Amino acid sequence: MRVVSAAETFPGSVHEAERVWYDTGRWPRFIDGLETVEEVTPNWPGVGAEVRWRSGPAGRGEVIERVVAYELLEGQEVEVRDDSIQGRQQVSFTPDEEGVTVELSLSYDLKRGPPLMKLVDLLFIRRAMTTSLESTLHRFGAELEAGAG
Questions:
Q1: pTM of the predicted model as reported, rounded to 2 decimal places
Q2: Core-most of 3, 13, 106, 115, by most CB within 10 Å?
Q3: Superfamily designation of domain 2-148
Q4: H helices of the chain, where?
Q5: What's the pLDDT tens digit per position in 21-30?
Q6: Percent of the chain as helix, strand, coil, to the nearest 5
Q7: What's the Rg (C-alpha) of the chain?
Q8: Across the chain, what does the average pLDDT equal?
């Protein structure tokens, strides 16, 4: 599996960060590439819950996230799959002197492709995935700040 990650520290508490992160109605404002949340099971964000969302036309298509681990005030791990990848994404919330550090990581495998795809992943895909996580966290920070007001 390939692994990409990003972390950022924001003003606020773990509780405030979780409240914003798990509010799927806010996801289109901060999840990179997400256009529409289509379905959220009632037990979200608990173990076994699923969220199905769709990206914009140039994006990943339909994405399904199923919760495999959840710890209140610590974080969540989801299995994620779309047409091109399958993997696990983790978000963690850690209290910090400056507020809360949010770390987002994605361990993934490409579903298909010739052996040359490993090189393409190394040169392009991995960088794009990292940029996407960083963008998500940056916009999450703006949404967290807006939610605190």
A1: 0.90
A2: 106
A3: START domain (3.30.530.20)
A4: 14-21, 27-30, 117-120, 126-148
A5: 999 999 999 9
A6: 30, 40, 25
A7: 15
A8: 91
